[in-house]
Specification:
about 40% helix; 7 helices; 5-stranded parallel sheet; globular; single chain
Amino acid sequence: MGKPLPGRFEASAGTSSGMRRALQKAMIALTHILVATDFSEPSEAALLYGRQLARAHGATLHVLHIVGNVAGDMAAPVGVGPNTDRLQREMEAEARRRVEGLLAEDVRGGLTARVTVLTGPVAPAILLYADAEPIDLIILGTHGRTGFAHFFMGSVAQHVVRRAPCPVLTVRHPERDFVVADAPRKMAVAS
């Protein structure tokens, strides 16, 4: 076995038995997991990870979608153009329906989930939610943009990783998935 990387602990035969016992007892307690979704493929991958981790830890899965502020995004003068309040409410209601649709089967299967739709800039909204709720882990899909697209659009994931009050797992789709579909369970039949 090679030399451990700096800052990384590797248990070996020379490790004291007390340290080994402490490592065996160490447990990551996840009770609230946040997945932010924009309904893209990377977000779907992040939601898959969130579902599996929430099931494995018996955690509540918080699924957050952020809707842009219609009034702030429109350049029409006051009193001109569509009813922005009504349009905003409709967009938020549609987003909530979509998120609830993504989770319907999971909730029927016993997963505890909370759906939240907020309005505003994406990264700050994710951070505000994570601060306001007892979130233990944030999971985000990342588009993997580079170059000019990254420079001009920025990275929501990068912003959240730098400022989050808890660990952040970024999932770049379709890279190296480690979540696998549930294997069929065999049932024992008493005779």
